[in-house]
UniProtKB/TrEMBL annotation:
This is histidine kinase. CDD domains: HisKA. Keywords: ATP-binding, Cell inner membrane, Cell membrane, Kinase, Membrane, Nucleotide-binding, Phosphoprotein, Transferase, Transmembrane, Transmembrane helix, Two-component regulatory system. It comes from the Bacteria. The chain crosses the membrane at residues 162-181. It is a multi-pass membrane protein. One of its GO terms (molecular function) is phosphorelay sensor kinase activity. It catalyses: ATP + protein L-histidine = ADP + protein N-phospho-L-histidine. The gene is envZ_1. It is an enzyme of class 2 (transferase). Its EC number is 2.7.13.3. Residues 182-233 form the HAMP domain. Pfam families: HATPase_c (PF02518), HisKA (PF00512).
Length: 439
């Protein structure tokens, strides 16, 4: 619970998280090694080298102070300084009065205090004018003395080499590890794509590959997909067979009733037509499991075609807000069938209906509203189940159904990567059905 805030900054994709898993240890290792390197090289080595040079400078100062006169002191400064590769000038033509170094000069932070502590009497040290030399002014018995020597004598040469080599090596290994990890994650992504496509009603080619665990998961997915496809096929064949077997006697009954003079014949013909409608609903429900692959379609044209059919059938249907969208990846027949079911329910349980289309970046939403009694919130999940009948919630006197209209619409939404939502219509007071389809 303490680190829940980190979830906002963690990548959402598997590739991003794998990259973080690879990069974080490398960065931590770089920081730890760099700190140890700086402490070891910049501090210990620099302090030791500066201390050695300080002994030489101290010797030069002592020899100058021991000279009997100024001329001897000057000669001593030149000779002794040359022995230690130090340029000594007495007196100093421009004595230094302050310490100076560049802000990024890490070793200079140790050179200046070490020389001050070991020598004493240093009025200024200059490391900024030329980062290749050390200039300092020290007080002697014969006036200020300028001492100049190479910077390499007090700090390590090319201290940046090890960090640069470490960074380049780390980058190289990170790239190699990322490419290897990418090859390991690709089979997982392919498995996820195949599962997502199957969830939308499409069966794409997939062959298990990758690590042993991924192959096992892929094989299990193929077995599951094959089992589900067999069940869908068996369901379709069963319902198709039932429909085919029942259509013939229903046709004979209808023909007999047409020729009959019985006063109850019209009511019986309506019953036969209702049974035929039930068979068509069974077949529609069975076909949704074998929906064809989506293609480029005009969602606005689908809406207006459904509305026009409903109006020709005598339904009072209004067209609401329709956002412009020329094309989307849809199965036009399945989406049209779902809208017809939703609109049929709306007109069956209400007197008027309205159909709208709302488009966003990630989804398009068909909205069907009516002025009927609606469905209570606690019964909406049940209403979308196959063969569900909500007699208490919806008026059944205006028509009959088998409880498959919402179930078919929900299957169509799921096969398009969306969902069917039921709510109360704010504008018309009845039921609002949102057919959400992913773009």
């Amino acid at each position: 619970m303490t680190f829940t805030w980190l979830k906002r900054y963690v990548p959402k994709s598997l590739y991003g998280r794998a990259f973080i898993i690879l990069l974080l240890p490398v960065v931590v290792l770089q920081v730890v090694v760099s700190v140890a390197f700086v402490q070891r090289l910049f501090e210990d080595v620099t302090r030791q080298l500066t201390g050695n040079v300080a002994y030489e400078l101290r010797y030069v100062l002592d020899r100058i102070d021991a000279a009997p006169d100024v001329e001897t002191a000057r000669a001593t400064a030149r000779v002794v300084g040359a022995e230690f590769d130090i340029i000594a000038r007495l007196p100093d033509p421009a004595p230094l009065t302050a310490n100076a170094r560049r802000f990024y000069d890490l070793s200079g932070r140790l050179v200046i205090p070490t020389l001050n502590d070991r020598l004493g009497g240093v009025s200024g040290i200059d490391l900024a004018t030329d980062d290749g030399i050390v200039d300092l002014t020290a007080r002697t018995a014969y006036g200020p003395l300028r001492l100049t020597f190479d910077r390499d004598r007090v700090s390590a040469q090319n201290p940046h080499q090890l960090p640069v080599i470490m960074v380049l090596t780390a980058l190289l290994m990170t790239v190699v590890a990322y490419l290897f990890m990418k090859n390991q994650l690709r089979p997982i992504k392919r498995l996820g794509d195949a599962a997502a496509a199957f969830g939308r009603g499409r069966s794409v080619a997939y062959h298990p590959s990758g690590a042993q665990e991924v192959r096992a998961a892929g094989t299990a997915f193929l077995d599951m997909r094959a089992r589900i496809e067999r069940q869908i096929e068996q369901r379709t064949m069963m319902l198709s067979g039932i429909s085919h077997d029942l259509r013939t006697p229903l046709t004979r009954l209808n023909l007999g009733l047409e020729l009959s003079d019985d006063p109850d014949a019209p009511a019986m013909r309506r019953d036969v037509a209702e049974m035929r409608g039930m068979l068509d609903a069974f077949l529609d429900f069975a076909r949704e499991g074998t929906m064809a692959a989506p293609s480029e379609a005009d969602p606005v044209a689908i809406l207006r075609d459904v509305v026009e059919k409903a109006r020709r059938g005598g339904g009072a249907v209004a067209e609401g807000r329709v956002d412009p969208l020329r094309s989307a990846m849809l199965n036009p027949l399945a989406v049209g069938r779902a809208l017809e079911n939703l609109l049929g329910n709306a007109l069956r349980y209400g007197s008027t209906a309205r159909v709208s289309l709302e488009v966003s970046e990630r989804a398009l939403v068909y909205v069907v509203e009516d002025d009927g009694p609606g469905i209570p919130a606690e019964a909406r999940d049940k209403a979308m189940r196959a063969f569900a009948r909500l007699d208490d919630a919806r008026n059944q006197n205006s028509g009959a159904g088998v409880g498959l209209g919402l179930a078919i619409a929900q299957d169509v939404a799921r096969q398009h990567g969306g969902v069917l939502r039921l709510d109360r219509s704010e504008g018309m007071g009845g039921l609002r059905a949102d057919l959400v389809l992913a773009r």
